[in-house]
Amino acid sequence: MLKKISIITISLSGFGLLISQSSQAQMLMQADSSSYQAQISRDESGFNACGIRAVSIVGDPKTNTVYDFSLNVRLPGFGLVKVGKSTIKTSDMLAKNGKQKISLPAPIRFWISKSDSGKAATPTKYVPAETAGFVLGGMDFVESAEIIYAMAYGEQVQFSVSYKGDNLQSIVGISSQLSDIDKKSLNACFKGLADRIQAEGVEEKK
After folding, report:
1. What is the number of H-type helices and E-type strands within the chain?
2. What are the backbone dihedrals phi and psi of residue 136, each rounded to the nearest 5 degrees, phi first?
3. How far is CA 119 from the centre of its chain?
4. Pairing between strand 101-102 and 109-114?
5. How many other CB atoms are found less than 10 A from the CB of residue 74?
6. 106-136 burial, b for 16+ CB within 10 Å, e for fewer?
7. What does the alpha-carbon distance between residue 192 and residue 143 come to, in Å, rounded to a whole number?
8. 1, pLDDT greater than 80
9. pLDDT at 8
10. pTM for the whole thing?
11. Which of the residues 11, 66, 72, 197 could staple to 51 if both were Cys, CB 3.0 to 4.6 A apart?
């Protein structure tokens, strides 16, 4: 169930995590469960996107919150995150007969970081996703790739999903890893993507 680690108040501008210049209370939590899945996309020329999807559950006696985000790196060289969350009553989850309720409207901010790092990766621009309650955000390619690789191999990461009107910022810690088959597929995808980026860069210089 819910593991509340601590509540602190800091100036977010000092850490560069959010755009807001004000202070905000933060609650650190550890997810009760997390599952990862490799995401790989190809076109006629080979791999064009590599990433990971994480579904994490934070529960309490009444309600479970399900966080769902996908982080990818894509051609021609950028990161992309898709993020949202839903809730389900604990009694319904235990009975396996309830439906998740998507949190609306979509979130307005997201950041993610390795737990041992003081720097968070955060989107520079947000646009609505086709899926109701989700948002897309453009990310830095290198930062996204580092986070994907860390998650794939079991490093602890922390993330936060913020909604309009939130007075408390929930920071969720998650730790899982990809299956051996998914790791192999993701590594092949990263190599193929890097080869294409390098080849296209050479072509542009000609």
Report:
1. 3, 12
2. -105, 145
3. 15
4. unpaired
5. 19
6. bbebbbbbbeeeeebbbbeebeebeeebbbb
7. 18
8. no
9. 35
10. 0.84
11. 72
